Every structure is written in C-alpha cells, then in structure tokens.
Amino acid sequence: MSSIHPAIVAQHSSAPLPQPWLERAWSAGSAPRSEDLIELIRSSGQTARLERDEMLFCEGDDGEALYVILSGTVRCCKVLADGRRQIIGFYQAGDLLGLSLGDVYFYSAEAVTPVRLRRLGRVQLETMMDERPQLRRRLFSIAAGELAAAQNQMLLLGRKTARERICTFLLGRAGSDGAVELPMSRTDIADYLGLTIETVSRTLSQLRSAGLVRMSGLSSLELTDPDRLSDMAEAA
Amino acid sequence: MSSIHPAIVAQHSSAPLPQPWLERAWSAGSAPRSEDLIELIRSSGQTARLERDEMLFCEGDDGEALYVILSGTVRCCKVLADGRRQIIGFYQAGDLLGLSLGDVYFYSAEAVTPVRLRRLGRVQLETMMDERPQLRRRLFSIAAGELAAAQNQMLLLGRKTARERICTFLLGRAGSDGAVELPMSRTDIADYLGLTIETVSRTLSQLRSAGLVRMSGLSSLELTDPDRLSDMAEAA
DNA sequence: CGCATCTTTGAGACTGCTCAATACAGGTGG
DNA sequence: CCACCTGTATTGAGCAGTCTCAAAGATGCG
C-alpha cells in the first residue's frame, strides 16, 4: 500500500499556468485564485515527475506533502474491494493535490499524462501558513472550492442522467472557445461520472449525431452548441 | 472489511454531545475532534432556533456565518431546476454548518427536527482564527474531514448498489450498541443516497427479512448483524 | 375518531449495464 | 511506407436493477 515515489529533481522552470479546473467548476467561487500562492509553493518545493499511469501517492499513505501541478493531468480515485473505481477529480496545471492534509491521503493520485509537479512538505507548509495569513486564507478558500466541487459532483452522481452527466462534464472542461481536451481515457471518464465506458461512448455519439459536438480524434472535441448543451446539462 | 468500531466517546460532563457525523464517516480522521472549538464558538455566538423544515440558509445566500449545532438534525441539500434534490449531508449536535465560507453558501440548510444552534459571524470567526493557531488547525482539519466524507459519498453514489448504499448509511449512523436513529424521512434518506423512497423502503424491508436489522418504529432500528451488514456495504 | 401524510408493497417500464463483436488508433517491425 | 498487432473505442442485443405509477397500509395530529 505504499506509493511509488517519483524521482525528485531539483529544477526550475516557468511554464504558463492554465486556469485551474476548480475555477471553472466552481462558478460561485470567491476571489480569483491568485498566482502568488502557487508561485510560493513552486519556489520552495522540489520538482518531481511522473510517467503515464504512475502513482504519486496511494489511499492510506501518510499525507506528508502538498503538490502543485506544473503540467500534465492527474486523476484522484478511490477503489472498492472488488475493483469498482470512482474518480474523485482530474487535476491540472496550477491545481493543488493532497490538500486534505489529515494523517493520511483519502484517495490515490495517478498520472493521466506525464506530469511535472512541485512538492511541499507538510511541516514546511504549516510553517508557511502560520507566518502568512494571506496564504492561509487562500488555502482555506481553495479547500472550500474543492468542497463545493465535490458537492456538485454528488449532485451529478446522485441525480443526473447519463446525458446530463456527460454534458456537465464537457461544459466544465470547455475553454472559452468551446474546445475540449480529453487527455484521459473513456474508462477514466466513466469512472468519474459513475457510468460505464459503453454509456459514455454511446452518449458522446448521440451528442455528435445531434450536432452538439464535433469530434476531432479521440481526445479532443469542440462544443458547437454550448447553449443547448447547457440546457441538457441540468434538465432532461 | 468488517466492523466499524466507534470505540472512543468518553463521558462528557455537561451537555451530552453525540458523536459528530464526521467522526464516524471519516475513519481515517486525524485527532478526535476536541470540544474546545465548539465550546469557544458556543460561548461567543448567538443562539438561534429552527422549527421542523425551517430553512437556516439557502444556496446562494451570502455566507456570513458559521453555525454550531447544539441539538437536532439539519440536512444540507442542492436542488436542480426541475426539483430533483441531492442531500449533501446530515448534521447533528456538535457539527459545524457553513464551513465553506466562500462568498456564498453552496447549498441550503434545513431543519430535519427542531434545532438549536449558535451562530458566529464571519468576521468574528476570522479574527478568532488569526489569533488562535490551534483553532485554525482544527477548523482546517474539520474541513478536510468534510472533504473526505464528500469523497466517500461520491464513491457511494457513483459505484455502489442500492443495498450497499443503505448498509453503508446504516453503519455510518449506528452507535456502538448497534442502535440507529433516523430522524429524517424516507424521502430525505433517498435524496441522500441517490435513490427513490420506494427503493429505500424495499431495501430496508429486505434487510429486515434477512434478519440483519430489527425495526422498532419508523425512525429507529437496530443492527442485529453488523459484520454481515458491513460486508454488504462494500461488496454485493 | 377522522383525515392528511408518510411508508410499504406491487406490477410494469425504462435507463443504463453486461456481454459480445466490430472498428479504430497507435506503435512496431518488415 | 505499409502490414501487422495490441489495446482502446464504438456499436449492437439482451438483461437487470432501479424507477415510475398505483394502491393499500401505518402513523400521527387535530
């Protein structure tokens, strides 16, 4: 049950920081996430890298560090004894991982794509939090956003139809131009939305037939009618 | 994967504070929730009361206060345009409400039973947090627990069968003696577990026929075989 | 005691799942 | 560069668990 630990490579780079996933999923969000926090952690942590499908940490491991993703996509998941899996969320550049710094991590984190990230030890983090009220508030606010996202997902999983789930998912990942990148597999999408891969695939095909999305390759598509899609996301 | 052991729970001198829901749902929890925080808020807030079904705050309202429940049960829920409802959680004496102090509340809070609670303004809370590192850590830890509970619920809603959901729910609410109090209606339970009232009712009847629970009235039952129930909670 | 509400039980329908076959994409070697 | 091969995605047919609709049985309140 211990995680494979990635090589820690002391290395700096200043890649662009795309909008974090949370910002979009959390429409009622408080202040826009400032980059200072991320900069701070980036500058005080160590860099790590993950291969595709490599595990960053495992459910049950000691929660010893907070991570900032510099590039790539990470999935966090919980698994039942018989293998059924629920993906808690996908995280991308600018997002924080392992925020629930209890004694242990409550979920496993794995790389969907190759990932670069920075690691900040728990002690170091707590020191920083004690010293900087502003950082503290920001982290609290990010945790609140995470909670709000989780609750939205509970609504989706508990009460939405397959089509609504897919539409919600696509809208949540769409850029302002309607482009959607899906670096994760259909299986990952299914496990995130509480469906099977077949249902995901079928539903996407339906949306395509209905002229709501245009698909260009397996991992990228375009929303051609976001308004209608938006209606479909919340009402059958 | 067997039984849950709510071992702890020492006797408290004054008001009997039932174990907060979080403690039980969050098996991997950090330090047991100390009462000092609750005492602190209790002593600095104003008391409020709610009638049955009365609303404390509504999704979208300004998140101006944190509440501690003194007695009674509260449900927090999110609702879709067409009325479908998802209950995010049930909260009881000792639990905190409105922790996600963003600008607005992300869900509505309503009284399941008559409720007494204490209210602490946001400004007041932030002052207290700045002054007391320990309080701060505790609140952060509680928020983390809330997040963990939400993620467990995502697993339940996304991947568990009706029977598994009911079993998980019952185990989560059982005292050490196997007694379960259900102050909420079947509709509330259904909306919490992502089911319909009929399915809830049928499943409870099945468990009773199978000799796993004994029902004494609508709102209270007893787990007669927690181990078997526990198996059922995670595997069909 | 009577009424309104909630719960339980039943029968049938439907969404999404399972199992199975085909199609596609990406990488490998000739 | 193309044929091959493996893993993933799509499509199809049938099934099952849960939902819907409906009625009867409890419960609680005035």
Would you mind describing this structure in some detail?
2 copies of one chain form a homodimer. Chain A has 236 residues and is an alpha+beta fold. Helix content of chain A is 40%, strand content 22%. Chain A has 8 helices and 12 strands. In chain A, strands 1-2-9-4-7 form a 5-stranded antiparallel sheet. A 4-stranded antiparallel sheet of chain A has the order 3-8-5-6. In chain A, strands 10-12-11 form a 3-stranded antiparallel sheet. The longest helix of chain A is centred in the middle third of the chain and has 27 residues, at 133-159. The first copy, chain A, is globular, with a radius of gyration of 18 Å. At the A-B interface, strand 6 and helix 4 of A face strand 5 and helix 4 of B. The structure holds a DNA duplex (30 and 30 nucleotides).
What topology does this entry show?
The structure is a homodimer of 236-residue chains.
Chain A: E1 8-9, H1 21-25, H2 35-44, E2 46-50, E3 55-57, E4 65-71, E5 74-79, E6 85-91, E7 96-97, E8 108-111, E9 115-121, H3 122-131, H4 133-159, H5 162-173, E10 179-181, H6 186-193, H7 197-209, E11 213-215, E12 220-223, H8 226-234
Antiparallel strand pairs in A: 1-2, 2-9, 3-8, 4-7, 4-9, 5-6, 5-8, 10-12, 11-12
Helix pairs in contact in A: 3-4, 5-8, 6-7
Chain A binds a DNA duplex (30 and 30 nucleotides) through α7.
